[in-house]
Amino acid sequence: MTTGQAGTALGCSIPTVKKLMATGVVPGVRDVGRQVFPLAALQQLQARPAADLTVLGTAEVAVLRSDAPSRVDESDRDWIGFGTALDQAQLLASLSGWWRCDPARVAVGGVLPVTVAGFVVAVLTGLTEWESDGTVGTTGRFRFPKARMAGYLTDLTAPANAADPADPEDARLAGLLLGTRLASVSGGPIAYVTTNPTTDTTTDEGE
User: Fold this and answer.
1) In b/e form, how buried is each residue of 48-76, taking b as 16+ CB within 10 angstroms?
2) What is the pTM of this model?
3) Exposed/middle/buried for 174, CB within 10 Å: 0-12, 13-18, 19+?
4) Furthest-apart CA pair in the chain: how many Å?
5) Ordered strands of the 99-100 beta sheet
6) Is residue 155 within 8 Å of 27, Cβ to Cβ?
């Protein structure tokens, strides 16, 4: 399938499909020359269920809308974004900050699903503490230094937690969320989604 055909089938734009392909989480994609999205993988992704957020017990949950990994020159990490080429420690560092957000609003949800193209590819917990970059106002960025990697995927077509969380609750949350479809809308990396049931799984992601 072409990226255009895959985008139509998944309800997202071509750039969003390319972002998903660049993470490495869909096996069999070809991104040298003409980009090709495997039909079998596409059919498996179409069949992924929507996330059941009602089990979280909160009114809303924050969602980190991630891009494919890119290098950064920062003291505490070398990468931002999600990609299967990164190991667990690199992923945790890349996903746990620095974002423009309301940190208290993120923390109250208790869990942070990480999505690429509307699919949950990682789950963070341990969000009770945060640090600010010192910027005053709405442009401030925050990170969560005690965040834990409850789970992440290396293959979205056959979701299996590549992490081994020590906390049983972390494992439970990861099992509920990984590989599901979770639509969100935001002008930045962090979105806030109500936990009421929804049938909309076609919201595009494109930071």
Assistant:
1) beebebeebeeebbbbbbbbbbeeeeeee
2) 0.90
3) buried
4) 49
5) 99-100, 141-143, 131-132
6) yes
Q: Each residue of 107-123: pLDDT tens digit?
A: 999 999 999 999 999 99
Single out the residue of 190, 183, 188, 187 nearest to residue 204, CA to CA: 183
Write out the H or E segment, with its range, that includes residue 173.
helix 168-177
Q: Summarize pLDDT for 55-103 with one digit per residue, the tens.
A: 998 999 999 999 999 999 988 899 999 999 999 999 999 999 899 999 9
In this structure, the chain runs to a length of: 207
Number of H helices, E strands in the chain: 6, 10
Residue pair 19/154 in contact (Cβ under 8 Å)? The answer is no
Class of residue 40 by CB neighbours under 10 A (exposed 0-12, middle 13-18, buried 19+): exposed
DSSP run (H or E) holding 167: none
Distance linking the first and last C-alpha atoms of the chain: 24
The DSSP letter of residue 109 is T
Structure-block tokens of residue 200: 């909309």
Q: What are phi and psi of 90, to 5 degrees?
A: -65, -40
Are the C-beta atoms of 111 and 124 separated by less than 8 Å? yes
Q: Which of 175, 129, 117 is nearest to 151 (CA)?
A: 175
Task: Quote the CA–CA distance of 183 and 172 in Å, as a whole number.
Answer: 21
| Residue 76 Cα distances to 6, 95, 190, angstroms | 36, 12, 20
